[in-house]
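User: Batch of two.

Assistant: Item 1 of 2:
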Amino acid sequence: MAALASDDDERALEHLVAAWDLCRAEPLIALVDTLASRIEPRQKALGGKTSDDRYEAFRTTAARARQADLARLVAMLPRLTYGDVSAALDTLLYNWRYTPRMRTLLQSVRLPGYTDRLDELRTTHATPRDEPLSERARQTVAELQRLLTTTDDAGADLLAQVYADPAADAPRLVYADWATSRGDPRGELITLQFARRDRPPELAAVRRERALLEYYMHRWLAPIWNAIRPYSVRFERGFLAAVTVEPFAVIAPRPEWSTVIALELAYHEALPMEAFPALRELRNVTPKLLAQIAAAPRKLTHLGLATEPGLRTGTRSMPVIPELADGRAFPDLVSLGVWGYPEDWAWIWQTQLARQLARIEVTHSFAGESPWLAASLPESIREVRIRERANEARLVRAGATFQRLEVICREPSRDALAWVHMLELVPLRTLREARFVLPRKAKQDTIDRLEQATRRSHPQLERFAVDVDPFV
């Protein structure tokens, strides 16, 4: 308690872990977690350019045996080579003082081939004993809980305000100031992401933002980490904004979901919509889930329907979907995600929903030109987006034809042909403008090949551009 009273959090954590090592009392778990979560954001993440550098950083840091370092040691595990992971786990199992914090930190760690070792580490470190505390010990624990709760109220309240009003900027900026003042890197991330909304970021800022996300993203999303696909995570204004969920993952209500704007599912049949107040784009929706979410009006602007395996397409026999035909369940819907052929969805244009839609998003499964670009779509449809893996072709209509193409290349490639392939979706000699958006700067030779291929297919092209957006 003296260490807490003097704001020496690290010394207080050492005392708490030593107490756990002696008695394994369950009430100490929450105390250790609370205090450690206050210290860990102030610790600089471990790094290293090579695998040897990273393991050396792990080894030398672990040798100091400071409990405050545990989170960054655990965060380094997925970045080690397969062999080095084994040695690192041995260090944490045999040479590290037992701490209940190990269970919480390992929740978000994925190490293929080491699942049993991770379970052993959690069990060995964090299993409590079923022994009652003395009256004096209970009083000490209660006082420690009071001290930790009092000092943590400000941050918890500010974070709760962000989650309560995810659309607002002010709560995030206030939280950024508070976090920065405590050395929490979350504050720096919020500041960097707000700054690039107003002006293109400099290279140093791009690298710093990527580093912050690489080192801390799994920690900020730890309660939901096992339910999401890490490669799909996108942060905006310092918080989770877009993500794809793992197949069969249980989506339990958590505050971390409240800032999500775009969510892609994996054939889930239920979704706690109350956990997603900011949600505007929902993809891969099964018929069962559609019936659930259509039971009350939703503020979705995009709804993507899940492909139904085994259902024949191209036969003009796609059944009418009552939840969409009505239109009242989705008054803000302007974009619809479908699959198959245009004639499969012809019934849509006879419904109320057709008067709302301005964009169609198609999951591509065709060789060559997309039939959606040659279909007789209503004039209200001004844009067709064709998704193929992580990449996306956006075609904007001018009259009866689609004359402007924007290709979003989220998968970096050294070969221009990987991006030229998206041109095959578009009918020949129809484009007037073409723009490719790449995640990283490409070599001039690659850009030249890309332009040559585009102009060969569309000789009347008036404008060609290649832009870089590192956060596309």
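Item 2 of 2:
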Amino acid sequence: MADRKQLEDRLKEIGCNFRFFARPEIRELANVLMPNELVQHCVIGQYKGVRFIGSHRSASTSDR
């Protein structure tokens, strides 16, 4: 698990600070990252299902 504050700082540093979008995904990303893993790229998007519209965040890291 990574520190959420450090993760948010890193996202700001690489220009991926989406303040109001995908906040739950940021919390979950902090849970799945290893302590020394560093986010390198990040994108946010939307998808449309048959009954709903959702959003997602994809990230690449130093290890994955």
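The chain has one domain: 4-61.
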